[in-house]
Amino acid sequence: MLQFWYGSNLTLIKNKIKARSLEDRQGGHSVIFKSYIKDSSGSVTGFKYYDYSGISKSAIKGDGSLFLGANLKDIK
Questions:
Q1: Residue 4's beta-bridge partner residues?
Q2: What is the phi/psi pair of residue 15, to 5°?
Q3: Residues 62-70: what's their mean pLDDT?
Q4: CB under 8 Å, gap of 24 or more: what pairs does 47-52 form?
Q5: What one-character-per-residue DSSP string does the chain give?
Q6: Rounded distance, CA 17 to CA 60, Å?
Q7: What angle do CA 55, 9, 26 make, to 5 degrees?
Q8: What's the pLDDT score for residue 36?
Q9: How far apart are the first and last CA of the chain?
Q10: Furthest-apart CA pair in the chain: how many Å?
Q11: How far apart are CA 66 and CA 9, in angstroms?
Q12: In this predicted model, what pLDDT tens digit does every residue of 23-41 receive, in sequence order?
């Protein structure tokens, strides 16, 4: 499982989560890792995952989304 967050600035996301603003869409949700996406040289450039809808999606490095292997809602 991975936690998906909107945005790419980890410090900003942490601060928004700590503030617990109901107007901000920083709630995040979990997705299930499926596989890596690699370029022709074998370097990882992204990964595929299953979203809550059960649809296979992908995240590419630098697309503006942040995926973490932890639930940041527990940050104090």
A1: 29, 67
A2: -65, -40
A3: 69
A4: 49/2
A5: -EEEEESS-HHHHHHHHHHT-TTS-TT-EEEEEEEEEE-TTS-EEEEEEE-TTS-EEEEETTSSEEEESS-GGG--
A6: 24
A7: 55
A8: 92
A9: 22
A10: 44
A11: 8
A12: 665 556 678 889 999 999 9
Q: Tell me the two tokens of residue 33.
A: 């890792």
Q: Which two tokens mark 31?
A: 């997705």
Tokens 């595929």 locate to: 48
- What type of residue is 48? K
**What is the rounded distance in angstroms from the CA atom of residue 63 to the CA atom of residue 37?**
14
Phi first, then psi: what are they for 58, rounded to 5°? -140, 155
What's the confidence (pLDDT) of residue 42? 94
Task: Provide the β-strand partners of residue 44.
Answer: 38
* pTM of the predicted protein model: 0.61
